[in-house]
Amino acid sequence: MPLYQMQWALRDVQAPGAWSRGYSGAGVRVAILDSGIDCGNAWLAPNIDFSAAASLVPGEGVCVQPGFYFNHGTHVAGIVAALPSGFGSVGIAPGATLIPVKVLSEFTGSGAFSWVLGGVVYAADEGADVINMSLGAYPMRTSDPDTQAYLLAFGRAAEYARARGAAVIVAAGNDAAQLGAGGDVGVPASAPGMITVSASGPAGWATGNPAYAWLDYLADYSDYGPPIANAGPGGTFWYAYVNPAQVCSIAGITRSCYVFDSVISTIPGGWSWAAGTSMATPAAAAVAALAIQRGRMTTGANLSPQGLANFRKTQVDFVRNTLQTSSDDRGPRGRDPYFGYGRVNADNASNVFYHAPRVSPAPTPLTPPYAL
């Protein structure tokens, strides 16, 4: 798989370790609340539950227009569950079932809060185990009554999902803003009940320079602050500030070196790169899917409908706790406002024998040494 060679994010979260243990996310349902999906995509279609797919955007269907172009929802879905192929990229949980729920217009990329809230309720009612929301508004003032109303509404939606066993994982945002400082909060990132994800990534990875081998710098655009629960590989633009003209080649594909620091995934008609907390969030959702599969199999919950029903009663707490204890501590020791409890790790999350270290490792760098 030539594009697999460009997927630094898979190695960062150690997805192959989970796969070697037999975990692929099989049996776990991940709802993608986004701008629709390429329903004819050969690397996604076998994993899509078309009977549950829906659009809450007036006048638009869940399936996006055919062609070769970037579609946000299709890219996000591929990070979770793209199937392996002879050429393309592969998802972190390639056996998971996808439930596309369109809550953003495929043409404008925006949507009403009511559509998103309705999407959470719909996905929970459709039996989603994980709800991925790679979306959010610009930071909003805490003092604004509308902000408080939105936070309350999203908190209630998360609680509704929780009662049905669905963990809501949401993007922190791409404004390089400190959420919770100066009166600014993220919606829905700062709402109660959310598992909020910041973005990390490399800075010159494709150059092959050992000095640029670190994969877990805080992304230059990522929002941060108390709401952050975990970080995920979302890609960075750090190297573009240093040498935007430098060219690198991987698997016969040549681009500006900084391009390879983004995340490659599916789009209508093929694959493309993108970077953002939108890309970090489905990585965390996919790791959650692997953890759920492991939890069900090791407890025997997958052997009967009643067992699954019982497991789902505490499934959200299981996901939250697993992501907290299995992640790789990054940034300052312990939980911090940049990486939360750490960057998600698929290998640890799917390993029943893994135990979090008693002592956190030494602090790791937030930004590359050449950061402005």
UniProtKB/TrEMBL annotation:
Protein's GO biological process: proteolysis
Q: Does the keyword Protease apply?
A: yes
Q: Which domain of life is it from?
A: Bacteria
Q: Active site located where?
A: 34 (charge relay system), 72 (charge relay system), 278 (charge relay system)
Q: Keywords in alphabetical order, please.
A: Hydrolase, Protease, Serine protease
> Which residue range or ranges hold the Peptidase S8/S53 domain?
25-342
Q: Which InterPro entries match?
A: Peptidase_S8/S53_dom (IPR000209), Peptidase_S8/S53_dom_sf (IPR036852), Peptidase_S8_Asp-AS (IPR023827), Peptidase_S8_His-AS (IPR022398), Peptidase_S8_Ser-AS (IPR023828), Peptidase_S8_subtilisin-like (IPR050131), Peptidase_S8_subtilisin-rel (IPR015500)
SUPFAM superfamilies listed in its UniProt record: Subtilisin-like
MF-aspect GO terms: serine-type endopeptidase activity
Protein family according to the UniProt entry: Belongs to the peptidase S8 family.
Among PANTHER family, the record links this protein to: CEREVISIN-RELATED, PEPTIDASE S8
Q: What is this protein called?
A: Peptidase S8/S53 domain-containing protein
Species assigned in the record: Metallibacterium scheffleri
High-level lineage: Bacteria, Pseudomonadati, Pseudomonadota, Gammaproteobacteria, Lysobacterales
